[in-house]
Amino acid sequence: MANHDIDITVRRGTVHALMGENGAGKSTLMKILYGMQRPDEGTIAINGKQVQLGTPADAIDLGIGMVHQHFMLADNLTVWENIVLGGEKLHGMGGKAKAKIQEISDQYGLGVRPDALIEDLGVADRQRVEILKVLYRGANILILDEPTAVLVPQEVDALFDNLRELKAEGVTVIFISHKLHEVLAVADAISVIRRGTTVGDADPKTVTARQLAEMMVGAELPSPASRESTVMPDEMLGVNGLRIAKTDAEGIERVVLDDVSLRIRRGEVLGIAGVEGNGQAELVEAIMGMIPLDAGTVTLDGKDVTNALTRARREAGIGYIPEDRHRHGLLLEAPLWENRILGHVTETPNSKGVLLDPAGARKDTQRIVEEYDVRTPGIEVTAASLSGGNQQKLIIGREMSHDPKLLVAAHPTRGVDVGAQAQIWEQIRSAQREGLAVLLISADLDELIGLSDTIRVIYRGRLVADADPATVTAEDLGTAMTGAARGHIESEPDAVAEQKATAAEGTEAASDRSADDTQAGE
Amino acid sequence: ACGAKSTDNNTSSGASSGASSVKVGMAYDIGGRGDQSFNDSAARGLDQAKDQLGVQVTEAEAKTGEAEADKEARLKSLVSAGYNPVIAVGFVYQAAVEKVAKENPNVKFAIIDSASDTQPSNVTSLTFSEQEGSYLAGVAAASKSKAKHIGFIGGVQSELIKKFEAGYKAGAKSVDPNIVVETTYLTTPPDFSGFNDPGKGKEAAQGQLDKGADVIYSAAGSSGNGSIEAVASKGKWAIGVDSDQATQPALSKYKANILTSMVKNVNVAVFDYIKAYKDGNPLTGVKNFDLKAEGVSLAQTGGFLKDIQPKIDAATQAITSGATKIPTTPEN
Amino acid sequence: MSTATTARPKTPGAPTKKSKLTWPIVLLLIAGALVLVSAVGAATGNHGLTASGQVNAALGAAVPIAMAGLGGLWSERAGVVNIGLEGMMVAGTFCGAWVGFLVNPWVGLLAGMAGGALGGLLHALVTVTFGVDHIVSGVGINLLIPGICAYVNRIYYRDYVANGAGANQSPPADSLPNITIPGLSDWLADIEKHHWFLVSDVAGIVGGVVTDLSVVIVIAAVLIIASYFLLWRTVFGLRLRSCGENPTAAESLGVNVYKYKYFAVVASGAFAGLAGAYLSLVAAHFYKDGQTQGRGFIGLAAMIFGNWMPGGLAVGSGLFGFTDSLQLRDADNVHVLLLVIALAMGLLAMWHGYRRKYTTAVISLVVAGGLGLWFALTDSVERPLIVATPYVITLVVLALASQRLRPPKADGQIYRKGEAK
Amino acid sequence: MTSPNPPAKRSFASRFDGEKILLALAAPVLAVLLSVVLCSVLLAVSGKDPFDAFDVMIRYGTASDGQVLTLNRTTVYYIAGCAAAFGFRMNLFNIGVEGQYRLGVLFAAYVGSQVDLPAVIQVPLLLVTAMLVGGLWASVAGVLKVYRGVSEVISTIMLNAIATAVVGLLLIPGRFAPAKSANANAIQTAPVSESSHFFSIETAGGTLWGFIFVAILIGVLFQFTLTRTRFGFDLRATGRSETAAKASGVNVKRMVLTSMAVSGAIAGLIGIPELLQSSFYFGQSIQLNLGFIGISVALLGRNSPIGIAFSALLFAFLDVSGTQLPLQGDYPQEIVLVMQGTIVICVVVAYELVRRYGLKRQQQKVGAELAAQAAAAAANKEVAA
Ligand SMILES: Nc1ncnc2c1ncn2[C@@H]1O[C@H](COP(=O)(O)OP(=O)(O)OP(=O)(O)O)[C@@H](O)[C@H]1O
Ligand SMILES: Nc1ncnc2c1ncn2[C@@H]1O[C@H](COP(=O)(O)OP(=O)(O)OP(=O)(O)O)[C@@H](O)[C@H]1O
Ligand SMILES: [Mg+2]
Ligand SMILES: [Mg+2]
């Protein structure tokens, strides 16, 4: 059961925030509202009238629009095709529709080009297309499921401006987010749900971030605070003059990585900040040996691995937490113990010689499940039946079990619930103290600042800026990520201090929570 | 069930039922009765034997691309159901007949279109001198061609069809040494679809017509239907094969353009074989049905050969007398 | 779609080299090919490659392949892989010939389409409603439909032997008309005869199109063009394609994905049925077991070859039809084709050399030299190889140019309503 | 394109869960019954007695000679099924089994007719020849896929047709076939030497091919490789998720090349039992369509060596007993194709329905157990507080 006994009332012309930990049931609730899933019982009333939502078409007819947590766009179609799809009756398919799109785009300053192919767009642009899709249909109830997860701070501000404008026009917005300060900044009302049921409402004018955190989290609210440096002098990973160009389907060549050089020392966490699609993924794949290089070298612990196969690199001690665990980290249809073998099939305890050692792998999987608190009824269930956070814990347990020298971690805590988040950070830190080098890529700038020893900013395939996490704010980092700042970035000391204070408040709230635990269970 | 054979319980009933009558089992090649061609001809012989000699018959046919073992099983089933003699239509049965005949020395077998050095004595081969009939077809074609340009379409480039080509070319050259003969084979073994694809026959014929041929002989099974259609629609002459194509209902529209057909009288061979068996002096060894034995002939439907009949008669005379030797493989 | 991050935008970097296939380039290539073929024709004295009869036959041979491919295109554009085209074609041959015989060939064409559509309906039921693997369903259909048709033929036509039916063939149906444009056709034929460089070749090609053209070829051409407009220019087409690219997105916008998938697969079957009906009503006039001979698969290949686009599909099936009829019509032409390809490869080698792709250039040059030598040292190509010409050419062309292909993103994936992540 | 890998093995306890066994058996049994019903309807509508027809088939299939034929045929179908399944296991759709099989057996027949070594060397030599030729032919498709991005679906379709041409080219008398054939109208290779003959077992029902043991060995090796070796793990991983396999260090290109070659090598063996046990030559009467039968058998057997054994047996039984239909009661044997088609479709639909049901059950179980864990954790906390 994902949801039960949910009661939420949303007033017209407001921004209503919905909060809750991972897997709390927010998306499920919204999908029910949007007609994509059917509730077993209960009622939905819109403008006081009770309605039946069998399909998304019903919801659209009632003026509900939804921007999904995972984008719902057809890559190989153009922007206007994606927008017009399903709503062709409104303005036809030709010039009139395009003109309408352009008009809405201009009205809200979305800057969308109707004839572009979706696959050529960046994440923020895609988000705008999603919003345009909803506006195009003249929706008066707008549901946004975690729209800010992949945006940089400046883009978040732009989005909030749009939302306020919509609100002024009488549109009702339901807004889902995990980020307390965002919610406080934009919402008129807040509902919190936990384990699929409503916990309570809050007034953003009076509630503090700390109180909100108390309502929301059933576990410690973590924040990666800075700590003693463990960096040792010897280089673990060296990347020199990396260049990768790709030819796309039309035969157009694009340079995705250009002259990228970096080094990570033993015990160091190097954070890469950047808007998605600026070459991070290629950088990771190049270090893992998954794509060919056009130029440059990669050395690991002093040895040149430029031409080594992925398997050889993994055997040489690179651990890999992929950004997309479903595509790169797991065999969803295979049991957990086979997933434990994945990526380390040539190493003990998974194999002896050319033969597999299923017994050994099973035993070790059991150990990982216990040590890393993977919540599962057993090691024979498929990976697909675990929730996202537990899948991630399994992957981390697997990668850490082979004592890596270098950990390539892409968004290690994305989509992971808060409890698991803290645990993952702690795992990385303790290994770091023993000399592990980490390449960390994350869209969560707080995580990046809190965990890294050094930060580099990637923009259009180049490392354009660097920063010391102790002296930079998320806002300034965000500016650099949009290409607006280069070189060494240092923020105002005041701003840095303020940011530190906010983070501390969150942590404090969490530690306070365990003291007065009693009323949280409701 | 492991112990019992499928035939254990019906051998007695099968063999003894009609003491007076002969039971003939017939195994056709692909297409079977109703293929408008080769198998049909064999079926006519069988029907004739049934009517005139009062024999009992049963029939079965091959499936496209079946296993060798299926052919053996078919023959064995006929044998064990008490059929004797068993007639296999088509050279594809050679190996199966040999094997089953060795296991059943008391049963007589006949195989059409095939002979082998290793077959046992209870196997009789019924073969035809296709090259002789084709020679006559070549004579007719060359005599009728105004452009001195004729064509040959073979269904599959197998040894058997090459005999047709060889005779046809020799016949045509005997009339006019300078005549141009186009040759097209639709497919090559082991792809036997060339006997089965009228579309291919049509295209090949059109190609030859475009090059200037005005008489086209197709030895291509039912692909020939396509070539006859193409030839007829251009108002040229077509020569058919195996059965008299001018009497085929499917081709009645093109009757006026079917010059003749090189008929292979499988029915004659089948009937003769059964009759000899019934009369108590079965045919043995390789029994070749040539022009002389009326195993092959040119069909006369439509009477289009009348004006050149003397030439054909002369050629027939030369062949039956042994004066003309006809190659069985094409010259080039 | 597992997460929003899987689709990676290509913002970084600027395009450096552009080599898009635009209309002017395509026209230039066609003109170049024409000149090459004309030159070879003049040099060897064999003008078979551009003879009107050859062009006409090529079109005819291309029709069943193109229609099967069009069926594949409709279905795969909606995200359903259709290996069962072959079986649906068989349904078309059978129903087409049957109704063609009982009523008339025009109704027969429709019946063939209906028969194929029925096969498509079965495929849709199994893949869309039951969510079974598309390939497995297709393989099952390829077993089932030919079996049913062969069985029914054997039982049903027993009473029609006098009409020309046999154990594995139906009685013949009447012909469908052919179209000739009276004056133009003769005039072009006249020009063609003179073997004037280039002029006669063009006359031959145009002549092949205006002389003795089966109406079904015209219908097929219309269907290909209509499919383009329907799929790329209408609401219906947009929705259908969205089901093949991202059905969940379509669903979230109120598109009834199941409905469009059903429609596409049924239409796919109808096109395959038309391909079959062409075989049993135009190429032949009767149904026969095993008549399709793998053309459904070739159609699928032509569709992939054509990058899931109607235009590309037409080129792919045209190429196959051309080489197939070439080898059937006149074996000597295949020998001449060797020279044409050798020269083309030589030119390709020069182009690669110019673009500094030396390895590819050398490989092309070696192939060109080998083919040229083969041409020079022989008088004809051996018969079995002649028969294989269309397959070899298709394989070679694909090997040279298949990296640009882009299937619909959700092609072959099993879609379940309401199971979006 | 396909989802070739059956769902993961269940835990030891759940594997012997009565309900699951019931469900697993229910699917194929129901499907076969349904197909029997459908075919009965077809037979009845066309004026034939379905019961008698099935009786004919069952009587022949259970008689000793029918059984031997069925087993011999099963041997061939099993190898064909394994050849296709090996590719499927890695998401490779090897339609080219047909061509690989024909070339493999042709070369083996030729070598067998030219070379005469002691049987212990001769027989393995012929097997290796067939595997090598089949594997090389399949590798053409592998190479084209890896280096030129040509879909193996198209390339193998084309290669099948080209293989036919190559066979035709080589069978021209004077090349692989003797210039003067013993059998006037057929083109075929000379018979293989006596030492090439594979051992067989004489039974009451006829000659049982000893090659059945080779087929069993192939199945055992297939299963062992897949489940017990590193290579097999890589192969299954690639089949389940190419992206995940690549990230895990599998060299996907090499994997494609290897598995295509292995699939082709197994395909090369398909014709060997017939060659070394029955006909002893390669000729025009070679059984066609074994490649496609192999694909059907593999898909029906869910690409697992055990499943393929059952589906090969079923297909062989239908084909063998079907030949009796026209002889005993004038039933068109095409009804067998109809049965095979309906069985394939019904079985996969039934499997899918059962799979969905099972998945739902598993998720519910996981959900329930997790909820229980969470409740327990909460209770503990309260106790602690
Ligand atoms: N029909 C269902 N029955 C039971 N559980 C379900 C059902 N559908 C989804 N779930 C599970 O319920 C939980 C709620 O998922 P949901 O996507 O709504 O979470 P969320 O609050 O949006 O989390 P996130 O912050 O990660 O987006 C998930 O663990 C989900 O897998
Ligand atoms: N229909 C359902 N019925 C019962 N449980 C379900 C259902 N669907 C999903 N679940 C449960 O949801 C969990 C996994 O779902 P899901 O992958 O959506 O989690 P998630 O946290 O949203 O992951 P991610 O963040 O990677 O999307 C499992 O516990 C699974 O058992
Ligand atoms: Mg969510
Ligand atoms: Mg989630």
Automatic annotation (TrEMBL), chain A:
Residues 485-522 are annotated as: Disordered. SMART domains: AAA (SM00382). One of its GO terms (molecular function) is ATP binding. Transmembrane segments: none annotated. Residues 1-220, 239-485 form the ABC transporter domain. It comes from the Bacteria. Keywords: ATP-binding, Nucleotide-binding, Repeat, Transport. It holds the Pfam family ABC_tran. InterPro entries: AAA+_ATPase (IPR003593), ABC_carbohydrate_import_ATPase (IPR050107), ABC_transporter-like_ATP-bd (IPR003439), ABC_transporter-like_CS (IPR017871), P-loop_NTPase (IPR027417). This is ABC transporter ATP-binding protein.
From TrEMBL, chain C:
It is a multi-pass membrane protein. The chain crosses the membrane at residues 21-43, 55-74, 81-103, 109-132, 202-231, 262-284, 296-322, 334-351, 358-377, 383-401. The keyword Oxidoreductase does not apply. Keywords: Cell membrane, Membrane, Transmembrane, Transmembrane helix. It is found in: Cell membrane. It comes from the Bacteria. The keyword Metal-binding does not apply. This is ABC transporter permease.
Automatic annotation (TrEMBL), chain D:
It holds the Pfam family BPD_transp_2. Keywords: Cell membrane, Membrane, Transmembrane, Transmembrane helix. This is ABC transporter permease. It is found in: Cell membrane. It is a multi-pass membrane protein. The keyword Cell membrane applies. The chain crosses the membrane at residues 21-45, 119-141, 153-172, 208-226, 255-273, 279-299, 306-323, 335-354. It comes from the Bacteria. The keyword Transferase does not apply.
